[in-house]
Amino acid sequence: MAAESEVQKKLPASLSAKFQDSFAYLTIKDRMPVILTKVVDFVHRKKNNLGPEFGEDGAEDLKNIAGHISKLRYEIQTDKPVVPLEDDRSDTIIWNQILEKLTNENGNEPPKWFSSAWLYLECYMYRRIQESVELCKVMQDFDVFEESKNNAFYSSELAIQTLLTNLLVTVDNIEKESDKKLSENLLFQQFLQVSLWGNKCDLSISAGMDNAQTSCILDQLQFLKDNILINDSSQIWNYINTKKGGSRIDIVLDNAGFELVTDLCLAEFLLSAGLAKSIHFHGKAMPWFVSDVTSTDFSWTLKNLSATNNLAMSKFGRLWQDRIEDKSWVLHFDTFWTLPFDFAKMKSEAVELYKELAKADLIIFKGDLNYRKLVGDLNWNTTETFETSLRGFHPAPLVTLRALKSDVVVGLKEGQGEETKEKDQSWMVNGNWAVISFCDKTI
Ligand SMILES: O=P(O)(O)OC[C@H]1O[C@](O)(CO)[C@@H](O)[C@@H]1O
Ligand SMILES: [Mn+2]
To answer: Which residues form the Damage-control phosphatase ARMT1-like metal-binding domain (predicted)?
Structure first.
């Protein structure tokens, strides 16, 4: 016990809105209330256009959701203490136990918005939104972010078309290449970077505003290359090749819309090139951080791809549906991903999920929130090693593909952070800079 607290003492502080020059402060003060306002607007609009199948109960439910979320916004803006959840979702008990523990550790004071850990509070906000839906009579399946996610897909449709047309040509040519390994390595780098930059397109960083990919991502890769602050892709390539194609690769997904399509392209390339045998995807069990992929979003995306009259889109839409049926693609939606725990806690808090991930030969974590959870959302020195920041989370070799959208990053060279800041003051939060960090340690 003493040894454990010694280690904890050495850890940096959690990111928090108590640091007024931080992105956490800006997020809690400005960005989160804006997201909630947009949700309330959407719920009101929905209420006015609700089909007859939901009847008066449906309208009443939506009115209650809007009231609940407006109250939550007021609680945040007036820095009220966090309160227990009152619905009966399967994870309610865990959330309330966490709150109790945090309250005890804080001299019997519940966490508050402008002084407690940002990661916990931001997750709690999304869980409270879900609470308002769980308490409904007839609208329990309602996703308050559905419209923005679907619109994000439609606004990226041209970019999706171009990308999938390129994928179609690539997949057809893989077998015909003369210097197979060399070209596969280049294509691997390309699809890894496509998936990486797909992460620029989330709707949480844009506070729910349209943030779609409207131009061809492939044309931008060369230009974006210098913005990859850490690029471990050669090590990842070498590692994957030691597995001789027999591997299972897990992708811990982030956002729906264009980003999801880029992840599916990476998965398709890995299978078609024989670099992996199966791909396991991990999505969210409930709507989360505005644009994160739920099971409904995943099926919606495949259905919409299949239904278009663009050749590449419809072909992959159908092929990917088949891949789910033949189990070369497997989908998981574990509740752990929508709890406020960082990943170092997975081994004790979600034993089964940890064991499942340990079956992978490589785990690819997408996006900013997954990165924050990998490194514990702590105020690390930018030159700290990625391995140290993981604090013992090593279910399998893992890589993070993340565009920087919060003020924490590790693994940089001495002076690299300062240099980047000189070029771009908001480099840590504007999504224009990125990392591909790999850790091959396993325990
Ligand atoms: O979709 P991503 O890449 O996880 O980004 C979501 C990020 O946006 C933010 O909401 C910005 O506040 C972060 O909290 C979060 O890490
Ligand atoms: Mn996200």
So the answer is: 27-419
